[in-house]
Write a structure and sequence with these properties.
363 residues, alpha+beta, FAD/NAD(P)-binding domain, D-Amino Acid Oxidase, Chain A, domain 2, 2 domains, nine-stranded mixed β-sheet, eight-stranded mixed β-sheet, elongated
Length: 363
C-alpha cells in the first residue's frame, strides 16, 4: 500500500491548484480524478470569467478568495501562457430600482477593495458598448476572461512539475480509518494518506460520506448557454451583465466574449435532480431572446445558436439564496479538509483556495 502525506480527491481547478500548492509546500501529494483527464465537469462548463469581487459581502470566503485569487490568476496565466484578457465588465441597469441596486453593488465592491469601479451614464455606456442600451452602468475594469480548458492544462502541468502525482481514471470507492491515516480504496489499488482534501465538486457530499466525514448536500444547479452567430459577434466588445437576480441563484443571463472570440449568452439557473444531466429538457433557443434583448435590443431570433451547459455545485437548496464556500476541517473526521461548494467565483479563486487549504493542512 502506497503511503503519502496528502491525497486530493477531484481534478478540477480547485483540486489541481491545491495539489500544486501542497506539493510546493513539501507534502508528498497525489490527486485522484475519476474522469480520463482533469477538469471535465464544472471547471470547463462555465463562462470563463475572472471576477473582480463585487457580488458578496467582504467577510465571506467567496469575496476574500476572489480578491486574493484574481491577481494570482492573472499572474499565473501570464507566466504559463494561458489565453486570457483583462477586458473589463459593465453591469447595466434599466429602471430606478436597478439603478439603486447598481449603486449598492458599487459601494459593496469598493468596500471589498475592488479598484477602478466607475458609475456610467447612458452616453458613457454607448462609448464602450455601442449596441447596449441601458439607463446606467457600473464599469469593473479588473474583470476579465480566461480560457478555462487552457487553465486546467496549465494547472495540471504546474502540479506535476511540483511533484504531485495525478491519477486520472481513478475513482474513490471507499476508505478505512487507520491509526496512521486514511486507507483510500480505488477500483485498482489502496493508497494510505495521512490527510485527505475533498475537492470533488459536484460529488463532494458523496466523497465526504465515503471518507466517514460529516453530512452535507450538494445541490446541482444547471446553467445553459446560447451563442451569438459569428456574423453578430461585433455587437459586443467585452462582458455585459444585468443587475444580479434577487433569487441569488445566479448573476443573470449575461453576454461574455470568450477568449476564443465566440460570444456566449447565459447562463440560466435551474436546479436539477442529477449531477451529470447536461442535456435533458434543454431550453429552446428562443427562450433566451427576451433577456438577451434587455442587454442588446437589436438581437433577432436567428442571431442565436444553442451552446453548452454547466452544473454548479451549490451548497444551498432553491429555497435559499446564498451559501459560502465550505473550506475547513471536517467536524467528524479530522484527517479530512473540505474544499466544497466551489461555484462562482471559484475559477477566479482557485489559486487562493489552494493556498488556504495548504495552510489548514500545515496546522
Amino acid at each position: 500500500m502506497v503511503s503519502i502525506d496528502v491525497a486530493v480527491i477531484g481534478g478540477g481547478v480547485t483540486g489541481l491548484a491545491t495539489a500544486a500548492a501542497l506539493a510546493r509546500a513539501g507534502f508528498s501529494t497525489c490527486l485522484l480524478e475519476r474522469h480520463p483527464r482533469p477538469g471535465l465537469d464544472t471547471s470547463t462548463h462555465n463562462s470563463g470569467v475572472i471576477h473582480a469581487g463585487l457580488y458578496y459581502p467582504r467577510e465571506t470566503l467567496k469575496t476574500r478568495l476572489c480578491i486574493e485569487g484574481r491577481p494570482l490568476l492573472y499572474d499565473f496565466c501570464r507566466a504559463h501562457g494561458v489565453d486570457h484578457q483583462q477586458c473589463g465588465k459593465i453591469v447595466v441597469a434599466h429602471d430606478d430600482d436597478e439603478v439603486a441596486e447598481l449603486h449598492r453593488l458599487c459601494a459593496q465592491g469598493r468596500e471589498n477593495g475592488v479598484q477602478g469601479l466607475e458609475l456610467l451614464d447612458r452616453r458613457a455606456i454607448a462609448r464602450l458598448e455601442p449596441h447596449v442600451q441601458a439607463t446606467a452602468g457600473l464599469l469593473s475594469p479588473a474583470t476579465g476572461i480566461v480560457d478555462a480548458e487552457g487553465l486546467v492544462r496549465a494547472l495540471l502541468r504546474s502540479a506535476e512539475a511540483a511533484g504531485a502525482v495525478v491519477l486520472c481514471g481513478t475513482r474513490l470507492v471507499g476508505s478505512d480509518a487507520l491509526p496512521e491515516g486514511m486507507a483510500l480504496r480505488t477500483e485498482r489499488e489502496t493508497i494510505l494518506a495521512a490527510q485527505v482534501v475533498n475537492a470533488a465538486g459536484l460529488y463532494a457530499d458523496d466523497v465526504s460520506a465515503l471518507l466517514g466525514g460529516e453530512s452535507f448536500t450538494i445541490y446541482p444547479c444547471r446553467g445553459e448557454y446560447v451563442e451569438l452567430a459569428r456574423s453578430k459577434r461585433y455587437l459586443v466588445n467585452g462582458l455585459v451583465y444585468p443587475v444580479p437576480h434577487a433569487s441569488g441563484h445566479g448573476l443573470g443571463v449575461h453576454v461574455v466574449r470568450q477568449a476564443s472570440g465566440a460570444v456566449w449568452l447565459g447562463p440560466t439557473a435551474v436546479y436539477r435532480s442529477r449531477k451529470d444531466d447536461y442535456e435533458t429538457g434543454r431550453l429552446a433557443v428562443e427562450s433566451f431572446l427576451e433577456p438577451a434583448r434587455r442587454l442588446i435590443p437589436e438581437l433577432q431570433p436567428g442571431d442565436l445558436r444553442l451552446a453548452g451547459s454547466g452544473i454548479r455545485p451549490k451548497l444551498h437548496p432553491p429555497t435559499a439564496s446564498f451559501a459560502d464556500f465550505l473550506i475547513r476541517r471536517d467536524r467528524i473526521n479530522p484527517r479530512v479538509v473540505h474544499a466544497a461548494g466551489i461555484e462562482s467565483p471559484g475559477l477566479t479563486a482557485c489559486l487562493a483556495v489552494g493556498n488556504l487549504v495548504t495552510g489548514l493542512l500545515d496546522t
